[in-house]
């Protein structure tokens, strides 16, 4: 039987060193994972040591994790659309450092939230600044793809509409090194009705028309504690929120999401292993291949 085309995991801890992340991912029977390559709530971090880099690569290889199914996430402090020059420069430097860490670890992507205008500049200005920030980082790195995550639109965060994401990509010079990570909770609370069949179909048609299906690089698979269009970012465990089990069964059998990292960020990490098992159990035989 052919191997499944679904690569499912979770955002696992890298406590004690990045080399521990693949080991933690293996304990939940994942074949993909996400991690922070540094403390996500601090600006500065010591450089990765040669020993850490070597051990990370070895642990990935020994446990069957390929770079294309690993989705590092940058620091929550970074705002690539910051309206204040000094703070924008700080965010840009931190983002470049994160991209370079991915390079060192042999990873292919860096996932990030686009940014916030903080009610200081216009939406369009913020989106253009984000594009410029991406261009600066791409010019100082090689190969790593900048993967923009859609947001719920909470507060002054941008990137909650497909139009925002398309506008950011439009001004990115090297379009081979930019992509999108779609977060199901964020998309739902931003107003995309992915629950019913028509809404689900229309959402992905809009994504393809406005952004382009080729830009979809990864998924954050989360249920939502808040209802459709609430613009509030509150994840829930699979089947426990407003999306419900039917959505996740439909999603996991959609071939659009083959061969990309599908990452759980659900709040109860004790359920990750059982959630991955449940999702795999819902995959129809047509996706698993035939003997």
The gist of it:
The protein contains 10 helices and 10 strands. It has helices at residues 21-27, 50-62, 85-105, 123-139, 162-170, 184-190, 197-211, 244-252, 272-281, 285-288, and strands spanning 7-11, 32-36, 70-73, 109-112, 145-149, 178-183, 216-221, 223-224, 235-236, 261-264.
Overview of the structural elements:
- The chain has 291 residues and is α/β, with parallel strands linked by helices.
- It has one domain (7-288): Divalent-metal-dependent TIM barrel enzymes (TIM Barrel).
- Helix content is 38%, strand content 15%.
- It contains 10 helices and 10 strands.
List unreliable stretches of 5+ residues.
none
User: Which topology does CATH recognise?
Assistant: TIM Barrel
Rg over CA atoms, rounded to whole Å, is 18 Å
Query: Structural class, from helix and strand content?
Result: alpha/beta
How would you write the strand order of the largest sheet?
3-2-1-10-7-6-5-4
Number of helices: 10
Q: Biggest sheet: strands, sense, closure?
A: 8 strands, parallel
Distance between the termini: 4 Å
The whole-number mean of residue pLDDT values reads: 95
Report helical residue fraction.
Answer: 25-40%
CATH C-level name: Alpha Beta
Instruction: Provide the succession of SSEs.
Output: EHEHEHEHEHEHHEEEHEHH
Annotated CATH architecture: Alpha-Beta Barrel
Q: What would you give as the CATH superfamily?
A: Divalent-metal-dependent TIM barrel enzymes
- Overall structural domain count: 1
Instruction: Characterize the overall form.
Output: globular
Topology of this structure?
Blueprint lengths: L6 E5 L9 H7 L4 E5 L13 H13 L7 E4 L11 H21 L3 E4 L10 H17 L5 E5 L12 H9 L7 E6 H7 L6 H15 L4 E6 L1 E2 L10 E2 L7 H9 L8 E4 L7 H10 L3 H4 L3
Parallel strand pairs: 1-2, 1-10, 2-3, 4-5, 5-6, 6-7, 7-10
Antiparallel strand pairs: 8-9
Helix pairs in contact: 3-4, 4-5, 5-7
């Amino acid at each position: 039987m052919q191997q499944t085309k679904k690569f499912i995991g979770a955002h696992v801890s890298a406590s004690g060193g990045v080399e521990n992340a693949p080991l933690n991912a293996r304990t939940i029977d994942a074949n993909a994972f996400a991690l922070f390559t540094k403390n996500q709530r601090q600006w500065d971090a010591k450089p990765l040591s040669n020993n850490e880099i070597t051990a990370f690569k070895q642990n990935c290889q020994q446990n069957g994790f390929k770079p294309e199914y690993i989705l590092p996430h940058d620091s929550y402090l970074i705002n690539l659309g910051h309206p204040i020059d000094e703070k924008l420069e700080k965010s840009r430097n931190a983002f470049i450092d994160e991209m370079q860490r991915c390079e060192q670890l042999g990873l292919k992507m860096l996932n990030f939230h686009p940014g916030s205008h903080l009610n200081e500049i216009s939406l369009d200005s913020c989106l253009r600044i984000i594009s410029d920030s991406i261009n600066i980082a791409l010019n100082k790195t090689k190969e790593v793809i900048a993967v923009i995550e859609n947001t719920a639109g909470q507060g002054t965060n941008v990137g909650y509409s497909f139009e925002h994401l398309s506008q950011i990509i439009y001004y990115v010079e090297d379009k081979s090194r930019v992509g999108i990570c779609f977060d199901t909770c964020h998309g739902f609370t931003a107003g995309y009705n992915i629950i019913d069949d028509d809404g689900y179909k229309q959402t992905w048609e809009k994504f393809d028309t406005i952004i382009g299906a080729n830009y979809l690089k990864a998924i954050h698979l989360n249920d939502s504690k808040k209802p459709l269009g609430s613009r509030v970012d509150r994840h829930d465990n699979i089947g426990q929120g407003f999306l419900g089990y039917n959505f996740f069964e439909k999603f996991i059998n959609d071939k659009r999401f083959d061969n990309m990292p599908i990452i759980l960020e659900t709040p109860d990490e004790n359920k990750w292993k059982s959630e991955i098992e449940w999702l795999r159990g819902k995959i129809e035989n047509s996706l698993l291949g035939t003997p």
